[in-house]
Design brief:
Number of domains of chain B: 2
Helix content of chain A: 55-70%
Number of domains of chain A: 1
Oligomer: heterodimer
Strand content of chain B: 5-15%
Low-confidence stretches of chain A: none
Radius of gyration of chain B: 20 Å
Number of strands of chain B: 4
Structural class of chain B: mainly alpha
Distance between the termini of chain A: 73 Å
CATH topology of the largest domain in chain B: ATP12-like fold
Largest interface: A-B, 32 and 38 residues
CATH class of the largest domain in chain B: Mainly Alpha
Mean pLDDT of chain A: 85
Number of helices of chain B: 11
CATH architecture of the largest domain in chain B: Orthogonal Bundle
Number of strands of chain A: 0
Shape of chain A: elongated
CATH superfamily of the largest domain in chain B: ATP12 ATPase
Radius of gyration of chain A: 24 Å
Order of helices and strands of chain B: EEEEHHHHHHHHHHH
Number of helices of chain A: 4
Helix content of chain B: 55-70%
Largest sheet of chain A: none
Shape of chain B: globular
Strand content of chain A: under 5%
Chain lengths: 110, 247
């Protein structure tokens, strides 16, 4: 079985990710089907102690995999916004990069 | 093309005849080929719903890996049958990342030996097959019996799970690492690290470039995690009886 660490840590990480995911909707992350499902699963299998049976280990692996998915998607989206999402600069911005300003031409371009 | 704006307020799931459906306000989600979007597992439906509910102002389809996997399973756009999928998956063994070794630089060869030998050994023991590794440009010579063993094993998975397995193999470029994930022998983070071993080696030597390296790392982790979760949720015994999964 994979080295998964503490189930409690995985659960906390999952809840944190769910909170991030719910930010936009304004609803509490506790209102979501995902939250209810995860809490119910952890409670049903009591996956919070350190010693786990096989079914508990399978659930923990699934939880850790889902945590990895949520976290990686969020991090990837953040990197995308940071480095790949900005589009082109306007002519004013480009001029500004080298210390120029575009001329004002009251009659428009000739 | 401009991104699609989030056009729905509420996302919910409901149970229909064929399985679980996703509702965006009052509209039922459909696949790209306009079929009704139905999934065999409630947990999977919840995770898909979460993807849709996580979208902010615009819908970023490239972040919705589980939705994409479900669409592929429902539409089967490449029109492959079960045996074709299995053969495509097993074919990867011939160029499996963890079997394909370099001779130089010595440090990388050593790293490959230390990191990849254990997982190859695990697969050989778990499946009772000979795999080995090779520095030849032609790659390892995989015995026919080994391939047939994997073909048999993969045949025990249903069509949905197989789509997921083939997806993970394509992403990680390794059948062995994918089986390591499916069999819960290694975590997604570890599988991705092993898949990207040479990149990691170069990064340690030459430095990390966040906008390229971390970007690729996060994307591969997301895809491998989605694929693995998809396989597990589609092959749980409680869902195997479901109509949708019968081939």
């Amino acid at each position: 079985m994979a080295a998964l660490g503490s189930p409690l840590r995985t659960l906390r990480g999952l809840l944190r990710e769910l909170r991030h995911a719910s930010e936009r909707s304004g609803r509490s992350y506790r209102d979501t089907p995902a939250y209810r499902h995860i809490i119910a699963a952890f409670r049903a299998h009591r996956v919070t102690s350190e010693k786990l049976c096989r079914a508990q280990q399978e659930l923990h692996f699934q939880a850790a995999t889902y945590l990895c998915l949520l976290r990686s998607v969020r991090e990837h989206a953040a990197l995308h916004r940071e480095y790949h999402g900005k589009g082109e600069r306007s002519p004013e911005e480009v001029a500004g990069l080298v210390g120029f300003r575009l001329p004002q031409q009251p009659g428009g371009k000739g | 093309p401009p991104e699609r704006k989030r056009f729905y307020q509420n996302v919910s799931i409901s149970q229909g005849e064929g399985g679980f459906e996703i509702n965006l306000d009052h509209r039922k989600l459909k696949t790209p080929q306009a079929k009704l979007f139905t999934v065999p597992s409630e947990a999977l439906a919840i995770a898909v719903a979460t993807e849709w509910d996580s979208q902010k102002d615009t819908i970023k389809f490239y972040t919705m890996h589980l939705t994409t996997l479900c669409n592929t399973a429902l539409d089967n756009p490449t029109q492959r049958n079960k045996m074709q999928l299995i053969r495509a998956a097993v074919k990867f063994l011939e160029t499996d990342t963890v079997c394909y070794r370099v001779e130089e630089p010595a440090a990388l060869a050593e790293l490959q030996k230390n990191e990849w030998d254990p997982v190859v050994a695990w697969a050989e023991k778990r499946y009772n097959v000979a795999i080995g590794s090779s520095t030849s440009i032609l790659g390892p010579n995989i015995p026919a019996r080994t391939k047939e063993t994997f073909v048999s094993h993969l045949a025990s998975y249903n069509m949905w799970a197989l789509q997921g397995i083939e997806y993970v193999i394509t992403q990680l470029k390794s059948l062995i690492l994918s089986m390591g994930l499916i069999d819960r022998h290694i975590t997604v983070e570890k599988a991705v690290l092993l898949s990207r071993l040479e990149e990691e080696y170069q990064i340690q030597r030459w430095g990390n470039v966040e906008w390229a390296h971390d970007y690729d790392l996060c994307e591969l982790r997301a895809r491998a995690a989605a694929g693995t979760l998809f396989v597990h949720l589609c092959s749980e015994s409680s869902t195997v009886k479901h109509k949708l999964l019968q081939d």
